[in-house]
Amino acid sequence: MTRLAALLLLAAPALADTPMTGAEFEAYAKGKTLTFATESGPYGVERYLPGRRVIWSFLDGQCEEGRWYEEGSAICFVYDFEPEPQCWELYQEGDRLRAVFLNAPGTTVLYEALDGEEDLICNDFGV
Fold first, then answer.
1. Which end of the chain is more exposed for a tag (fewer CB within 10 A), N or C?
2. In this structure, are residues 74 and 22 in contact, taking their beta carbons and an 8 Å threshold?
3. pTM of the predicted model, to two decimals?
4. Which domain holds residue 75?
5. What is the C-alpha separation between 110 and 113, in angstroms, rounded?
6. Which residues does 4 contact at the CB level (< 8 Å), separation at least 6?
7. Residues near 16 by Cβ (< 8 Å), separated by ≥ 6?
């Protein structure tokens, strides 16, 4: 194995441990609907719209509008129902995301379960 190949192999795990930047996250998520789960089961679904706007649902048919922004190594979300920023570090692992909740470290890790470009089904407004 060449020295360059060995260095690239050693660097690969470090890259996977680097949180996504706002630009990387926007390029990944914009226009998609992503479903998230914990290790124990489904958690929620979010639609990523232009202008860093989002629509979130806890999979109960109720949807909330919000927006996201980059703050340091975190991607923070603010919703109509929860004006306190919800900040996450997002990691791309292969073709999926892992999200680590920063507001209460060690409490919540979400994994992207599904993705697509379909719309959310919301009982409370026309999305």
1. N
2. no
3. 0.80
4. 19-116
5. 9
6. none
7. 91, 92, 93
- Is the residue at 3 inside a domain? no
CATH number at residue 64: 2.40.128
Counting the structural domains of the chain, the total is 1
First to last CA, the chain: 53
The tens digit of pLDDT for each residue in 51-100 reads: 999 999 988 889 999 999 999 999 999 998 888 999 999 999 998 999 99
b vs e for 31-66, b when ≥16 Cβ sit within 10 Å of the residue's Cβ? Answer: eebbbbeeeeeebebbbbbeebebbbbeeeeebbbb
Amino acid at 57: S
35 is a domain residue: yes
How many beta carbons lie within 10 A of that of residue 94, not counting itself? 7
